[in-house]
Amino acid sequence: MNYSMGNMKIQQIFYKNTLRNFCYLIRFDDGAIYCIDPFGGGEVLSALKGHTLQAILNTHDHCDHWSGNEVLIREYDCDVMAHNEAKVPGKTKSLGHGDIVHQAGEWQLEAVFAPGHTMSHLCFLMKKSGAPYALFTGDCFFNAGVGNCHNGGSAPVLYQTISELFSKWPDELLIYPGHEYLKRNLQFTIHCEPDNAKAGEFLNRIQGQNLDEIFYINTMHTEREFNTFLRLNNSTIKKTLNLESADPEKVFLTLREWRNKW
Ligand SMILES: [Fe+2]
Fold it and tell me: Which residue, 17, 262, 23, 14, is CA-closest to 148?
């Protein structure tokens, strides 16, 4: 699926694998193309249609986010960028919080340190004329959910990232996650917050749709309406968890535990 904003284009590639990975191609005004989290290289080669690739960006070092690196490096001899501590194949450049990946015209892509799913996880923030426009979240944040922490992560650290970083993003920010888990996550929202009308409406809307073919790009505004992990003070959720007087961190950690087993 293509999203075009003037000369800047975002192409979303969906792999119909069990983990339901997304990969993204970003083409800037000046023609430079970046690939975020290639699960497979062949699909990226096809999507590039003869254009060259400037660099691969890996949000983190779980293999479903870099297994396409080798094919693409062989074809394009491109840079591979990831966090200093992330063990990804072919890395040529380490990125830290605030590092600018590319700038062309009014668009700028920068690295955002977002630990918790792993301790060396980056998100990538696209800014338009200096304002946050779109966020590529890897496995830190999903539509209606957040990443797990069982493979090198830390739930308290993820809580810090979500509560401090994500609470500041503007409502209009577009979210491009690393996996397609929308329906399952909305069902979890209803499980924890049965009276969430927005989640119910969205579930009705996607009922019967082929979610291998139709994808939704949510804004932070929408996420704030039905992402349980952003609704830590909600009285229904706290009641469901039997945590009516608990602080937000306890609610978050309990939700993460529930989602792990759900
Ligand atoms: Fe991951």
Answer: 262
b/e sequence 103-135, b meaning 16+ C-beta within 10 Å: eeebbbbbbbbbbbbbbbbbbbbbbeeeebbbb
Residues across the chain: 262
For residue 61, how far is its CA from the centre of ligand 1 (angstroms)? 7
Per-chain residues with Cβ under 5 A from ion ligand 1: 62, 139
CB-based contact 88:66 (threshold 8 Å): yes
- Matching residue, tokens 């993204």: 24
Tens-place pLDDT, residues 28-74: 999 999 999 999 999 999 999 889 999 999 999 999 999 999 999 99
Q: How far apart are CA 237 and CA 260, in angstroms?
A: 17
Ligand 1 centroid to Cα of residue 257, in Å, is 17
Q: Which domains does the chain have, with CATH numbers?
A: 2-261 (3.60.15.10)
C-alpha of residue 6 to centroid of ligand 1, in Å: 32
Q: Which two tokens mark 250?
A: 């306890």
Q: What is the pLDDT of residues 132-158, one digit of tens each?
A: 999 999 999 999 999 999 999 999 999
CA 213 / ligand 1 centre spacing (Å): 23
141 neighbors 163 (Cβ within 8 angstroms): no
